[in-house]
Amino acid sequence: MKKRRVPLMVILFLLAGWGSYAQDLPAGTLSLRQCIETAIANNRDVRQGDLQVQEDRLNWKQSKLNMLPDLNGILNHQLNTGRSIDPFTNGYINQNYSSAAYSINSGVILFNGFSIQNGIKQNSLAYEASKMDGQQIKDNLTINVILAYLQVLSNRDLVAQAAEQVELSKKQVERLELLNRDGAIPPSQLSDLRGQFAGDRLAYLNAEKAWESSKIYLFQLMNLPYGSDRSFENIETSSFAASYPDTPDKIYATALEKFALARSVDLRKESAEKAVKVFQGQLFPTLSLNGNLSSNYSSAATKALFLNSTDVTSDDYVVVNGNSVPVIRKQNNYNYQKIKYGSQLDNNLFTSVSLNLRIPIFNAGSARNRVKMARIRLESTDIAAKTTKIQLQQSIEQAYLNMTTAFQSYKTLLEQVTAYQESFRAAEIRFNEGVGNTIDYLTAKTNLDRANINLINAKYDYVLRIRILDFYQGKPLW
Q1: Is residue 449 in some structural domain?
Q2: Cβ distance 110 to 176 under 8 Å?
Q3: Is 100 helix (H, G, I), strand (E, B) or coil?
Q4: Which residues pair with 290 in a beta bridge?
Q5: Cα–Cα distance, 420 to 426 (Å, whole number)
Q6: Are the beta carbons of 358 and 242 closer than 8 angstroms?
Q7: pLDDT (tens digit, 9 = 90+) per residue, 84-127?
Q8: Pairwise CA distance, residues 88 & 325, whole Å
Q9: Which helix H or strand E contains 287, and what residues bound it?
């Protein structure tokens, strides 16, 4: 199959678009804040949300401008042939001529049932709701980045833990190899430790793979190419030993005021209420004030200039003494000249002012149906608002339970690690002195390894649960 070649211009266009879109990471160790800010700057959904906010802002501004009078100018030029009406004399003429008409008109709505005023409030609330929706997109992305960042740190600590276990097993294997050459131990002890050493190396490889995978996912959230050599700052650990100060009820009450999603549904409901009033206003008469200024021009327009009066013999006659004597009458003589363009515009100037009242009597029921549709949408937004708040309260209660469970698990695992450390220390001493067996040693080591891994996971799980509760209260997440 013949490969299709991508045109060079397309490649350059895509590269140019990426350069104007993506935000690069700063050099050095990355902090959680840098990762969040980069992800927000490069995320397509965030940018799309920003565009929606701009669109709703323009709708709001336009609704305010609708209160101003309109002003329109009309210019008309035409060429006429044959029989037509002269716009200057309004009489029929049969000649070729040109004409022009100019007008400026303006109008303003004085009253229309307050539809315009309510439309301004409706669009203002929709604009505020759009900003909350945009913030919600950013908040959701922030939580995902925090989760990915904590996963990177957790996997990094697990790699370090696995590396320590590999090093410990390696030293034990080397020690037992020396003892085995001297015949001081049963060969099975060396075999058991070699098996443990291989298992620890495999665990290390798996931990490294999970670490790299978590970093790749974090870079995907930032919409940037993966950088395997980048390092990450540690998070503050002072909060690990402290319980969360707020209760679920307090968190929920704060979330209703500050959580972007909760504020958005309330604003959407208020906007829908104003929409009902907008359509109700259209059932009232509309009072408007209009003004017009116009003039016109015709190339056929002329004016007569008086020259003189002369005596001319007419076709009429009178009989004098039996003779026909022609009748002589006076005739005024004129010189006809075209009227200048500017003079015609001045002479034909026309102005008008009107006060119009439009009364809706029957419009096939469309106005009343629009009111009914608006009320249906209002009911829909009310249901969405109530459902969202119920789900929010349930999510907060579940998140609080997860947080308290994670906190108790972390404290319990701290005690477990301390206990297993002492057990392993004692088993290692006995094993090194030759009075303990490999089963006791490997059991103690496995218990300690598992406890350390669980402690690392519990530590970062607790941090994540705290961040989620902060997220619901609109607190800074880094």
Answers
A1: yes
A2: no
A3: strand
A4: 107, 354
A5: 10
A6: no
A7: 887 777 788 888 888 899 999 999 999 999 999 999 999 999 99
A8: 42
A9: strand 286-298
